[in-house]
Amino acid sequence: MGSVGQLGPTDVADLGSRVSANIARAVTVPAVALRDLLVALLAGGHVLIEDYPGVGKTALARALAASIEAEFARIQSTSDMLPSDLIGTNVLNQRDGSFEFRPGPIFANLVLVDEINRASPKTQSGLLECMQERSVTVDGASHELARPFIVLATQNPIEFEGTYPLPRAQLDRFMVRIRLGYPPAREEAAMLAAQAACDRVGELVPVASTAEVLTAQGVASEVHASEALRRYVVALLEQTRRDVRTRLGGSPRAGLMLLRAAMTHAALAGRDHVLPDDVQALAGSVLEHRLLLAPAVADSERAAVVADAVAGISAL
User: Fold this and answer.
1) What is the average pLDDT across 24-31?
2) Which of 105, 111, 140, 199 is most buried as measured by Cβ atoms within 10 A of its Cβ?
3) What is the rounded distance in angstroms from the CA atom of residue 268 to the CA atom of residue 39?
4) How confident is the model at residue 198, as a pLDDT?
């Protein structure tokens, strides 16, 4: 792929199709989850995967990294993990007595942080800077992270012993939240037969490069969003704020994330402009985990709040 000026959304759509098809060769993933993953990648966002153990979260991350020829790192979160275990530290060079920086696993292109809520708040805060600033600061010196850079973090929704709930500021840094779920019985049986013979993820070959991903990110960032479309996003946020089931609805940052995701969704569809359909398609994945519900409201109501907000705007 060449420069952004020589390319258009059709090139982004082609890239998305190639990567999606390659991942699907090795991992059984719901179409919506795979779409949201690609949207986050090409929008420069991060992904929170909330699901049960053994449904393919690690395999999905490995498959994505293999498909775009990205450097991959996996971090298993524990309560005694320190921020330096993530970002690296300065060590003494015995030869000349100087200190030199040794980078941690966060300097990979694609970083899988398993069970992020098992990391202490201090370590979570170290990850927060990486996700927001795309850089780390050690002893006053700033170090840039790799480009592209995406964090895929996992949470187990049924185990809470020994965990530290993610603060609102941390949740807000994840562009989308996805769930993989259990595959249909026929697909699961086919997966068992294929995986018994070999590691399908290990056999994947790249169908794109990190340079292509960076170029596609530039194209997606130039997709046109009209003033009317931006007002539509704001109206959707206001609907979530007025809902009696929420204490806090979508924030301005949530609106920015939703707009960027919608622009990328449009590019993946081969369009150079955003439609309300793009916003609606991503509204649940982008907004649900950002809502703070009223005390008596069940967590399962998140999806209904967003769906009702979309329906409320359509009825205006």
Assistant:
1) 90
2) 111
3) 8
4) 67
What is the residue type of 101? F
CB atoms closer than 10 angstroms to residue 114: 21
Beta-carbon contacts of 31 under 8 Å, excluding residues fewer than 6 positions away, are none
Indicate which CATH number applies to the domain containing 253.
1.10.8.80
Domain range holding 101?
Answer: 4-216
> Residue 73 and residue 300: Cα distance in Å, rounded?
32
* pTM of the predicted protein model: 0.91
Q: What is the pLDDT of residue 5?
A: 46
Q: Does residue 246 have a pLDDT over 80?
A: yes
- pLDDT tens for 125-134 read 888 888 988 9
Structure tokens at 206: 């790249």
Q: Which of 15-29, 120-134, 196-210 has the highest mean pLDDT?
A: 15-29
Choosing from 160, 195, 216, the residue where a domain stops is 216
In the chain, the percentage of residues whose pLDDT exceeds 70 is 94
In this predicted structure, the answer to whether residue 76 has a pLDDT above a threshold of 60 is yes
Is the same domain home to 251 and 201? no
| Spatial separation of the C-alpha atoms in residues 145 and 185, rounded to whole Å | 41
